[in-house]
Design goal:
The protein has 88 residues and is mostly helical. It has one domain. Helices cover 70% and strands 0% of the residues. Helix 2 packs antiparallel against helix 3. The termini are far apart.
Length: 88
């Protein structure tokens, strides 16, 4: 496999996030499957809001990055759902 530049990797990850947000938006329209709730609960578990005064340790960097990625996915999903509602 050829090595990819950071720009290529970022582009691929952004494309995957966009595709996943589209899929999530379609699935989240059906409230009965619980996708939106599951994503929001996942963020609540990872962002350590239960102790807002705590200083995150460097070892939590991966978890923080995962939380941020899920937050971005939810944001993109909601934007797509809102734009679909405006078109209807």
């Amino acid at each position: 496999m050829s090595e990819q530049s950071a720009f290529e990797l970022e582009g691929r990850l952004n494309g995957l996030r966009e595709a996943l947000a589209m899929i999530a938006a379609v699935l989240a329209r059906d409230e009965s499957n619980g996708l939106r709730l599951a994503l929001e609960e996942r963020i609540a578990l990872l962002n350590h809001q239960e102790d807002p005064g705590a200083v995150p340790h460097a070892s939590f960097a991966v978890e923080a990055a995962a939380t941020r990625e899920i937050e971005l996915l939810i944001s993109d999903m909601r934007s797509l759902m809102a734009s679909d509602n405006e078109k209807a």
